[in-house]
C-alpha cells in the first residue's frame, strides 16, 4: 500500500515536472475548465439533456396558460442554482479584479534566502494578482479615494506564497487587535449605511484622531497614492516585516516592494469623483484592456533587508507597520520581474473565489514578530472559512501547482478523493511521511524568545509623528497642494465639529503648521497658532511618486481620444492614428456620430467614411489620457457643440495633454483663449508650439506623422512633442500657476 501511495505521489510529481516548460497553473486549471461556447446540448447538473430551457412545465393548451407544475425538476434546479449564486463578499477589499502572470528573477538572492523562487534564476513562476479597494462593497466604484490592495499569489514549486499587500507602504494601526475597530470606523456608518466607499465621514476621522498611530497612513491616504490612474501604475508593498533565511540559517528582516515600469501615476480628484459615476469599472476595464492589447503590465520586484543583529539600530521599530524603512537607510535591491499577461476566463471562480493568506509562505521565508502580521496570520485563513468554506484551498484558483498530500479530511464540499485505508500519521504503511529540512520541508527559524507576558508594544512604537512629517516634507509642491485639498474635502464632509476641529487644530498642527492653518480656515476649525511637534524638515527618498517616472518617456497603453466630425483633415487623422498605434498606445475615435463620418473633400459617393469607436455623448474626457483634434472644416461644427467644447476645457482642467493641428488650433483658442493668455500655433504657420502641455501645429503634411518620432522634451516635430507631453502624464504646472482653476469645469 505504501508503495502504491508513494507511486501515486511520484506520478503527481512527474506530471508537474513534465509540464515545467509550460505555465503550470494553466495546465493545472485546464482540468476544471470547460468551453461554454461548445455546441454540445445543455444538460441538468446531473447530466440529463434538457429539451426546453425556456418554459416551465405547465398545464396548458393552445388557448389557456394554466398553473406551473412543482414537478418540473429541471426548472426547479435552475431556480435553486440561481437563488444560491451569491457568497458573502469579503469584509474588506470586497471590490477587486484579478489577472494572471509570471515572475522571474534578475539575480539570485541566495545571500539572504534559500527560497527557490528567490534564488533559481531559471524559474518562471506563475502568479495571480488581485487588486482591490478596501472600504467599498463589491459593487462600488473603482476610482474612490482609498488604499488599493495588491495581493499576489505565487504558485511556486514548493507551495503557494502569498504577499497580501497594498499600494501604500504603511498601515493605519500597529496591532491587529485594532483591526475590527478600524474597519468599523472606515466603513459606512452603522445607523444609516452611509457613505459608500469613502473616508469622508465623522467616524473615520474620529478614529484616526483617537489613534495617533494612524497619522502617517492618513497622510498617505490623502495623497495622490489613493487615487491611482491605473492598477498598472501603482507601487505594491508587502507592508509587514517578514524574514528571509539563507542556506547557512542566517536571518534577515525583509520588506517586499513592486515598482511599476510605467511609473507611478494618479488621477486628479475631480476626475476620480466623476469617473466613479461615469465609468465605475474604470480600473478593472483598464487592466483587462491593457492585457488584451498586449501592453502587459510589469513591475520590478525589490527587497529591503536588515540583518538580524541590526534590528535595533534604527530610531523606529522595524516591526512597526506604521513605518517605512527609509531608502537612504535601507536601500532597495531590485531582484525580479513580475508581469501580468492573461485575463481570467471567468470572474467568479477565478477572482471572487481567490483567497489569500499572509500565513502562506514557503521555505526560505519566515514571519517576524510584527504585531500586525501576527494577527493577520490568524485572520485570513479564518475569514476564508466563512466566505468559501473549509475546503477553499481545493478551488482551482487557490490550489498549489506542486504536489499536495496530507491527512486533512472531509468538511463541506470536499472535492478530492484520497485512496487508501489510513488517514492518520504515523501509520503502519508509513504513508505520507514528513520530510526533513534538506528534503524541502518548512522549518521555523529557531528564534530565542524571552519576555514578560503583557498587552503592550515596545517603546519605539510610540513615535507617531516623525515619519508623518517626513512624508509630508518629501512631497513635491503639487503633491502638497493635493493633500491639502483632500483633507479639506474630507473634513468638509464631517459635520461634527469635535471631529474636524481636533483633526485640523491638533493633529495636523503636529505635522505642519502651515498645512493645519490652511485646512482649519477652509473647514471652519479654530486656526492653530503653533507647531505642536517640532518638524526638523527631514525628507526621504522614494516617498514622492514623482520619483517614479518610467525609465524612458513612453505613451504605451495610454488611451488617446481623437475628436472628429464630418470634414476632418484626413492626413492628420490617419497619420496620428498610426503614430499612436506605433507608440503602443490606444487610439479611440470619438465622433459626432457612430455612422460614417467623412473627411474633408470626401462623400458617400467616393468614400466609405470612418466609423467612430464611440460618439462623444457616450464618453467623457475623463476616460482618456489625452485628446487630439485634427484640423479640417469639421471644426466649425465642433465649435458649436457645447459638450465637445467642455471636453477640451475639462481635459485642460484635469491637466491632460491636448494636441491640435490646422483649423483645430482655432477651436482650442476659442475654448481656452477666452479665459487664458494662451500661446498656440496659427492654422497656417509651420511651427509646432507647446504651451503648458497644449501642443499645436498649423499646417501638417503626411511626413509630419512619420513613424520614426522620438518622444523627447527636445523633440521639434508635432508628434514627438505631443507624445512627450502625454508621457509626462499630467501638466501639474498648469495647476500651480492657477491656470486650471481659472476655467469652468
Ligand atoms: C498591513 C496591513 C494590511 C494589509 C496590507 C492588508 C491587505 C489586504 C488585502 C490586499 C486584502 C484583499 C485580498 C484579496 O484581494 O482577496 C485584504 C483582505 C482582508 N484583510 Fe487585510 N490587510 C491588512 C491588515 C489586516 C488586518 C490587521 C486584518 C485582521 C486582523 C486583516 C483582515 C483582512 C480580511 C478579513 C480580509 C478579507 C479576506 C477575504 O475575505 O478574502 N487585514 N487585506
From TrEMBL:
Top-rank taxon: Eukaryota
Biological process per Gene Ontology, one example term: hydrogen peroxide catabolic process
Comp. bias (Polar residues): 10-20
Biased composition regions of type Basic and acidic residues, renumbered to the chain: 21-49
Stretches the record annotates as Disordered: 1-49, 530-550
Residues covered by the Catalase core domain: 43-433
Keywords: Heme, Hydrogen peroxide, Iron, Metal-binding, Oxidoreductase, Peroxidase, Peroxisome
Binding site for heme: 380
Biological role stated in the UniProt entry: Occurs in almost all aerobically respiring organisms and serves to protect cells from the toxic effects of hydrogen peroxide. Catalyzes the degradation of hydrogen peroxide (H(2)O(2)) generated by peroxisomal oxidases to water and oxygen, thereby protecting cells from the toxic effects of hydrogen peroxide.
UniProt protein name: Catalase
Organism from which the protein derives: Penicillium canariense
Amino acid at each position: 500500500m505504501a508503495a502504491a501511495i508513494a507511486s501515486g505521489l511520484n506520478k503527481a510529481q512527474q506530471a508537474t515536472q513534465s509540464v515545467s516548460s509550460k505555465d503550470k497553473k494553466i495546465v493545472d486549471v485546464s482540468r476544471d475548465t470547460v468551453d461554454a461556447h461548445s455546441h454540445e446540448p445543455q444538460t441538468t447538473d446531473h447530466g440529463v439533456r434538457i429539451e426546453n430551457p425556456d418554459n416551465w412545465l405547465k398545464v396548458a393548451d393552445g388557448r389557456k396558460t394554466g398553473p406551473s407544475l412543482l414537478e418540473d425538476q429541471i426548472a426547479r434546479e435552475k431556480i435553486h442554482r440561481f437563488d444560491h449564486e451569491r457568497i458573502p463578499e469579503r469584509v474588506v477589499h470586497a471590490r477587486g479584479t484579478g489577472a494572471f502572470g509570471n515572475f522571474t528573477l534578475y539575480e539570485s538572492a541566495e545571500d539572504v534566502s534559500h527560497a527557490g523562487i528567490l534564488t533559481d534564476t531559471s524559474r518562471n513562476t506563475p502568479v495571480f494578482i488581485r487588486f482591490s479597494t478596501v472600504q467599498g462593497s463589491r459593487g462600488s466604484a473603482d476610482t474612490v479615494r482609498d488604499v488599493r490592495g495588491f495581493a499576489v499569489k505565487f504558485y511556486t514549486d514548493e507551495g503557494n506564497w502569498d504577499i497580501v499587500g497594498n499600494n501604500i507602504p504603511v498601515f493605519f494601526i500597529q496591532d491587529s487587535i485594532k483591526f475590527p475597530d478600524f474597519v468599523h470606523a472606515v466603513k459606512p456608518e452603522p445607523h444609516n449605511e452611509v457613505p459608500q466607499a469613502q473616508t469622508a465621514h465623522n467616524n473615520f476621522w474620529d478614529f484616526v484622531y483617537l489613534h495617533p498611530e494612524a497619522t502617517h497612513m492618513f497622510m498617505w491616504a490623502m495623497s495622490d497614492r489613493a487615487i491611482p490612474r491605473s492598477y498598472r501604475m501603482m507601487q505594491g508593498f508587502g507592508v509587514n516585516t517578514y524574514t528571509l533565511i539563507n542556506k547557512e540559517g542566517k536571518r534577515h528582516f525583509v520588506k517586499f516592494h513592486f515598482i511599476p515600469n510605467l511609473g507611478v501615476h494618479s488621477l486628479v480628484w475631480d476626475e476620480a469623483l466623476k469617473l466613479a459615476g461615469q465609468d465605475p469599472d474604470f480600473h478593472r476595464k483598464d487592466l483587462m484592456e491593457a492585457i488584451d492589447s498586449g501592453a502587459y503590465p510589469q513591475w520590478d520586484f525589490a527587497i529591503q533587508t536588515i540583518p538580524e543583529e541590526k534590528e535595533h539600530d534604527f530610531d523606529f521599530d522595524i516591526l512597526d507597520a506604521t513605518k517605512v524603512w527609509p531608502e537612504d537607510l535601507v536601500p532597495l535591491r531590485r531582484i525580479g520581474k513580475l508581469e501580468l499577461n492573461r485575463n481570467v476566463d471567468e470572474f467568479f471562480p477565478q477572482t471572487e473565489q481567490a483567497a489569500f493568506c499572509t500565513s502562506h509562505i514557503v521555505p526560505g521565508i519566515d514571519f517576524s514578530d510584527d504585531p500586525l502580521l501576527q494577527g493577520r496570520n490568524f485572520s485570513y485563513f479564518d475569514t476564508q472559512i466563512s466566505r468559501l468554506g473549509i475546503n477553499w484551498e481545493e478551488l482551482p484558483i487557490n490550489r498549489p501547482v506542486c504536489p499536495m498530500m496530507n491527512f486533512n479530511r472531509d468538511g463541506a464540499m470536499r472535492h478530492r478523493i484520497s485512496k487508501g485505508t489510513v488517514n492518520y500519521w504515523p501509520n503502519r504503511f508509513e504513508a505520507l511521511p514528513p520530510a526533513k529540512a534538506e528534503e524541502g520541508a518548512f522549518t521555523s527559524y529557531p528564534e530565542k524568545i524571552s519576555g514578560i507576558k503583557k498587552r503592550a508594544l515596545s517603546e519605539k512604537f510610540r513615535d507617531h509623528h516623525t515619519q508623518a512629517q517626513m512624508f509630508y516634507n518629501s512631497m513635491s509642491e503639487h503633491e502638497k497642494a493635493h493633500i491639502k485639498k483632500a483633507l479639506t474635502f474630507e473634513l468638509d464632509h464631517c459635520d461634527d465639529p469635535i471631529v474636524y476641529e481636533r483633526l485640523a487644530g491638533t493633529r495636523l498642527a503636529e505635522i505642519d503648521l502651515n498645512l493645519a492653518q490652511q485646512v482649519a480656515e477652509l473647514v471652519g476649525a479654530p486656526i492653530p497658532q503653533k507647531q505642536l511637534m517640532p518638524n526638523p524638515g527631514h525628507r526621504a527618498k522614494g516617498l514622492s511618486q514623482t520619483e517614479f517616472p518610467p525609465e524612458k518617456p513612453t505613451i504605451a497603453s495610454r488611451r488617446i481620444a481623437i475628436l472628429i466630425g464630418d470634414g476632418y483633415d484626413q492626413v492628420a487623422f490617419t497619420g496620428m492614428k498610426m503614430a499612436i498605434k506605433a507608440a503602443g498606445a490606444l487610439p479611440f475615435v470619438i465622433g459626432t456620430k457612430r455612422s460614417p463620418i467623412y473627411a474633408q473633400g470626401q462623400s458617400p459617393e467616393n468614400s466609405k467614411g470612418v466609423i467612430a469607436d464611440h460618439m462623444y455623448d457616450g464618453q467623457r474626457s475623463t476616460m482618456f489620457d489625452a485628446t487630439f483634434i485634427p484640423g479640417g472644416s469639421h471644426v466649425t461644427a465642433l465649435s458649436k457643440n457645447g459638450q465637445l467644447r467642455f471636453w477640451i476645457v475639462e481635459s485642460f482642467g484635469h491637466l491632460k495633454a491636448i494636441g491640435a493641428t490646422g483649423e483645430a488650433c482655432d477651436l482650442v483658442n476659442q475654448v481656452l483663449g477666452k479665459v487664458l493668455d494662451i500661446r498656440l500655433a496659427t492654422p497656417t504657420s509651420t511651427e509646432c508650439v507647446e504651451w503648458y502641455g497644449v501642443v499645436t501645429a498649423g499646417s501638417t503634411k503626411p511626413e509630419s506623422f512619420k513613424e520614426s518620432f522620438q518622444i523627447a522634451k527636445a523633440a521639434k516635430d508635432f508628434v514627438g512633442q505631443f507624445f512627450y507631453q502625454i508621457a509626462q502624464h499630467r501638466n501639474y504646472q498648469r495647476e500651480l500657476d492657477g491656470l486650471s482653476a481659472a476655467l469652468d469645469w
